[in-house]
Structures are given as structure tokens and as C-alpha cells.
Amino acid sequence: MGAIYWQLNDIWPGASWSSIDYFGRWKATQHAAKRFFAPVLVSACEQGTNVSLHITNDSLARFEGQLRWSLLDHRSEPILTGEMPILVDPLSSREAVALELADELDTPDKLRRRYLAFTLTAEGREVSGGSVLFLKSKHFEYLDPRIVAAVAEEEDEYVVSLSAEAFAQFVSVDLRDADATWSDNIFDLSASGTKRVIVPKSSLSTPLSLPQFREQLVVRSLFDTYA
Questions:
Q1: Measured between alpha carbons, how far is 215 from 221 in angstroms, rounded to an integer?
Q2: Looking at the structure, do residues 182 and 129 belong to the same domain, yes or no?
Q3: How many CA atoms lie within 13 A of 169 on its CB side?
Q4: Domain of residue 79, residue span
Q5: Cβ neighbours around 118 below 10 Å, total
Q6: Is the pTM of this model over 0.85?
Q7: CATH number of the domain where residue 65 is located
Q8: Do 45 and 135 fall within a single domain?
Q9: Residues 159 and 125 in one domain
Q10: Which pLDDT band holds residue 139 (cuts at 50, 70, 90)?
Q11: Residue 55: burial class (beta carbons within 10 Å; 0-12, 13-18, 19+)
């Protein structure tokens, strides 16, 4: 099984629907494609206030892991949480859990201020994850997430650790004057967690010292587009 989307790259610089630009830089679509084409992933199917979480295993080995989900408010304070072991045969997909959240989402304010976050782990490592809003992003009551980025230098890479004070959607990390390859980008970030993003030094278009990297780092989220 497979899928194709149009289009992967560009033959000249310009604004287009490609997921990789002319210079080889990944756009938001390419980072999303890396996640939704992962060999093992958790995905959500939402219908109103009901959400079913599905596990897909496109690998040739049986998958064993743990699924965690949380209904959170826009400050990432938990309303409901759940956890369950996961076992999925090779080359198969199955529904893991069906959540009925009508009682927890029974007013317009709750719909505007609550979201579902979920994570699939194996041997203590996050394999896949995501989040679900119960209305369009433009109607969600985002708070200023006040994202903090801590940058550490290792032998051949920089490690960016991101944390927030409230739910942040579509978090983007970039460098002001240099290009780089990011291990992940355009992701959602809850206040209850920390996101680590790796940048190999060899991927930098211009060599940067640790102070220069910190000075050039730009972090944005969907909240900033409303500011």
C-alpha cells in the first residue's frame, strides 16, 4: 500500500504547493508527511465529540507499546486521562480506543478551550503522537504559550529543548539567517511536556557557534499569527 501527493519539490524558486522548496528546505507539509507516513503511528478519527484512536503498523514486526491520551484545557491542565497497552500485528491496523467526550465538551466554552492529546510509546521512546481540536483552529481560545527554547551543544549537533506555559499548536523552529535540517518541526506542544529537536551541525548552511545559534533561533506558533 502507498500514497502519492502533489508535489514533492520545485524546479525553480517560488511560492508553490511543493513540500520541499527549490533549495531543499522542508516546508510544513513535508514534516507532516514524515509523521503520517511513519511505519508505526497513532491517528485520530473525530466525529463531533467522539474520537477513536487507531494504531497502524506497516512494519514487518509485531509492535508492542503503550498508548496514552489526555483531554486537556488550553493551559494543558488535565480533565481526563487514559493509558493502555498496545499490541498490533505486522502490516495491520486496528482501533485502540473509542472515546465519548460529550459530557466533558457540553458547552461552547469547553469546545473552545479543550483539546485531546495522545502519544504512542515503545520502550520509553515516543513513536507517534498528535492532538485533536473539536472546532476549527481559528475558533480555539489560544493563550500565549510563552515558549522557552533552551539550546545545548553536543559534539556534532545542537539540541533545542522547547517548553511552554500553555498549549501551542504548529510550533515552528527556524534560524534567521541560516538554513538547517531539523529532526522535527511544525508540531503541537502541551505545557505538560518538553520537545527536543536535533540539528546536526553538518546541516547548517553557515557554521554557527552556540551563541550565534541561540541568537538566530526563531520560535513561533499559531498564536503568534493572531498577535
A1: 18
A2: no
A3: 21
A4: 41-139
A5: 22
A6: yes
A7: 2.60.40.10
A8: yes
A9: no
A10: very high
A11: buried
